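Entry for the shared binder. Reason: the reviewer on the internal report wants the predicted structure included alongside the sequence.
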Amino acid sequence: MQVAFKPEEVTYEGLLDVFWSTLKDPTQVDGQGADTGSQYRSGIYCHTPEQKAAADASLVRHCL
């Protein structure tokens, strides 16, 4: 899914925080909880180098 957002209302970093908070175990391979299989994989796709840098930083903050 692609999420359209208004940066003046919510930051990209704020969206990333919500993304991480919805995952039960971000390190689980092939799904979340009882939902397993490649169709349940989560991902972050970026449009700009700035979004990529923010996504990388959020991964470190939330998972490493």
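Summary line for the report: The first strand starts at residue 31 and ends at 32.
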